[in-house]
Amino acid sequence: MILKGQFTIGLYTSFSLYIAKVFSSTQALATIGTIIKPVCLSIERIYQLLDMQGENSGKHEYLNRKIESIELNNVDFKYNTSEEYVLKNLSFKISKGKKILIKGENGSGKSTLIKLLIGLYTPTSGKIFYNRLNIERINNKSLRNRIGIVSQNIFLFRGTVLENILYGQTNRNREHVEKLIDQFMLTEYIHRLPRGLDTEISQNTAGVSGGQAQVIAFIRAMLSNKDVIILDEPISNVDAETREIMLRILKSRKTSSILIIISHITKGIDFIDKIIEI
Ligand SMILES: Nc1ncnc2c1ncn2[C@@H]1O[C@H](COP(=O)(O)OP(=O)(O)O)[C@@H](O)[C@H]1O
Ligand SMILES: [Mg+2]
User: Tell me: domain 69-277, CATH 1.10.3370.10, correct?
Assistant: First the structure.
């Protein structure tokens, strides 16, 4: 058209400029959907958060006496995400001063049972009682303050071994830790760490071995003098030395609290008052 004289260069320049604007706006319109979708989702999540009930809603009782008994009454449990029941018709009673072994194959629901015991999940049906009080009515914080757990996945914080042991303890200090280590005959063991109690742990458990991390977590749990101590697989995935240490201490320790040991290996655990098989 320009060659034929029907269109001037000026017109053509304006045309190009404007058409580029039209295209870019249309493109923006086309992508608006992909931008706005995640926004909608986020708004939905915000509403879900705002509507969430606190985990202590309806839990008005405080556990302000030592835990003397734990009782499960026909407890069934399945996770929301699956159809299959993990625990079915579980009943037992544990009293203070007892050492309990919960045994069962991998995947049988042992760790799940612990999650129920500390109120992280609620039984699908059936009841759990602490001191004859229904867990559904017990304030979670007042319950968890009385329970010490060494879980399967140990997490240590950045800091020294001592700081990690004292983490969360308000009225314990270095002396208490040293005394306990002495009682457990672990003084030499701890001294073998590069700087003893002052050994730095950098990230998670880097700086100490898996077995040492387990022992540190164990000392942390024992120091706090809880009413219930739960050890999830304390002797399963550890080296022979750590296993021996754990067994020796667990065996020799007289306890006025409740000690729950979870394990799929039962070899060496012969100091138990009661075995619960899942
Ligand atoms: N958060 C979860 N959501 C759905 N299923 C789970 C969850 N945690 C564990 N499970 C399933 O529950 C069963 C029991 O798991 P778990 O209690 O960890 O067993 P154990 O500790 O005895 O090895 C397994 O089949 C596992 O896959
Ligand atoms: Mg487990």
Answer: no
